[in-house]
Amino acid sequence: MANIRLTAQLDELARLDLLRERRVLEGPQGPRVVIDGRELLAFCSNDYLGLANHPRINAAAIEAVRRFGVGAGASPLVTGHNLLHRNVEEELAAFTGLPRALLFPSGYQANIGAVTSLVGRGDAVFSDELNHASLIDGMRLSRAEVERYAHRDMDALEKSLAASGAKLKLVATDSVFSMDGDIAPLPQILALCERHDAWLLVDDAHGFGVLGANGRGALEHFGLDSPRIVYMGTLGKAAGVSGAFVAGQEEVVETLLQRARTYMFSTAAPALLAAAVGESLAVMRDEGWRRTHLAALIAALKAGLAGSAARLAPSDTAIQPLIVGANAAALARAESLRARGILVPPIRPPTVPEGSARLRISLSAAHSIEDVRQLVQGLRNEPASSAAA
Predict the structure, then answer these.
(1) Catalytic: which of 54, 169, 237, 293?
(2) Which of 104, 138, 173, 357 could make an S-S bridge to 115, C-beta 3.0–4.6 Å?
(3) Domain limit, last residue, from 227, 256, 286
(4) What is the dihedral of CA 142, 143, 149, 155, to 10 degrees?
């Protein structure tokens, strides 16, 4: 029977220490969360700027509910496209410095919609081997030829581009890699796209709001501007809300509006979220101290662990991975920290490659220096890992 097969599959996941469990938060997202009635110092959220419970953003959402209600009622191409959706798309385009933006209910839908709209049979997509699952699934659904290149390996990418006879080429890459925290060499990738007549799709989920002098993302960080760039940013991480957008040239965004099935056949996001995103952009502009403070926290964590057995992987972003190796060891270290009142998630395959299970430390501007000191103390008291040595 089918349920016997499913039970066997679940038992195998348990044997490999790969079963996942959901935590139930009993209050708002923040540097401290309440789980099972206990307050924990949390280093597991993508709320990099600490905006998920910002009073200005909350107030904007509440006012939008009063004006427009809760549900959008239909897909954007029927009657779901609201005045607030239109306004925030214009604001997102202006914020990123791109001609036009299109709002999606999630980053997963945005990436799948972008890839499947832009390439198909006879085309080729060139993908960093550590790209997010949403990009990978979009490539599979597109039916284009997919060529993976070694992580951040520009020589490998150039050879693949030069050897390809595809009629249309698309290079797809995360900007900040979600499990490693390192940054793609976007200037070099764009130069290769120019040389080999390819588009560049940048998934800036973990860079939008954080990278760049004004938090405008990876393009600002590197000073990039090209009609070849298709830019995806998520709104549930640094922006503190929900959803995502794709921005680029007018004809690119219009193509997504006309062809992206994940846009056409999904109910539009509630107008209250569009209002919240608009206010979030304003807060990002007004409160630049949040990015400065986040940079100070990253430096404090690195300095605090320097010379210890708890060695972080190279990263200059809010994502600071501590590679442990074995799945059971990652679970044990996470549980030991939780016993000390610190919540850090263990990340295991298939999210990361086999043998590279880790603690994924994510910092937020809502943390204090004292919070980081407490984390450092907890990590320094942890047993050394042979995989991290």
Answers:
(1) 237
(2) 138
(3) 286
(4) -90
